Amino acid sequence: MTRKNATRRAMSPWSLDPNVIFLNHGSFGACPVPIQRTQSLLRRRMEREPVRFMVRELEGMLDSSRRELSAFLGTAPERLAFVPNATVGVNTALRAFPLSPGDEILVTNHGYNACRNAAFRAAEEKGARVSVASIPFPIASDDDALGAIFRAVTSRTKLALIDHVTSPTALVLPLARIARELGARGVETIVDGAHAPGMVPVAIDEIGAAFYTGNCHKWLCAPKGAGFLAVRDDFANRVNPLVTSHGANDPRTEKPRLHREFDWNGTTDFTPYLCVPEAIRFLGTLGEGGLPGLMRRNHALALQAQEILCGALEQAPPCPASMVGSMASIPLPAHLLPAPVNKIALDPLQDRLFFEHRIDVPINVWPAFPSRVLRVSAQAYNRRDQYEILARALTGAHNA
User: Which helix (H) or strand (E) holds 108?
Assistant: First the structure.
């Protein structure tokens, strides 16, 4: 079997381009073909009789999907609302949290740019301020992350926005310890869990944060636009969707207010939410041990990728294995750094890898220009030799 045919066979449940080495699952996920078919059937059902689907059937289908997702996430369905993505979830939680002038929101230097922007806007609107905990990277242990966060807490810190898995640096943070110890200091936590579901075990009630938001279209491989927001009971009556709609005066008492308010914000495509249970089930068929087995396999592959790339670039791994999930980020040495680029443009080296080598892998400025990090993902369709090809391309770029 040729390499190209082997690649096509390995990727057959996905519709990814077989001529591209796709090492960027973390950015937007990749929806498997069977889940795309499920969504298409739901869309046909919706368009065959829109009123029946939207008015008579949708509420029950959302309840069923939410029950399965909440069981997977370790929380009660009553605490869970569907939102399009984790950025919407973070914005919603920030709007709900009571802040007074002079209060502080704590973020980290590893936070996702969109969500940090939301924190700064929320602080500005409420007369509060944002402080930044500087977690080192490379990093030696969980304790270094915990220490950096707790050193940044002051008597004015009321809320912390913490990633479960950091976006630029791919660090898995010890969320249960962070939320528990912040709570002991009187600080509530919003968890940005965009990458966590399907990458690492998630037990929302055990973490105990005031809010936990995440995506289902990344590592759970649901269609784009499937996310959730989990709200702790003591905040349930404070949180409202960003769009006020019919649920604001829905008189029913048998349905949780969170569901009345969030389930209908106007006409949209609800099928991504309805596909989540099927996505969870499908991922469980991809190898031994079900979805937990797939997460272990992807973790092991990410560690292999880290080892291969660090070896090629002649540097030590930037973090311990315990802080790696299904992604690994590698700081790029100075000789690979290109000229300055527009902040929102793709990095020239990222473009070069794509156009010259057909490798799709993200390269981000972090923590500040000119420093860059390269982040690889490991999903069921990836293999060890793909990271070896990337390593050769990077060393070739140095020698060119």
Answer: strand 104-108
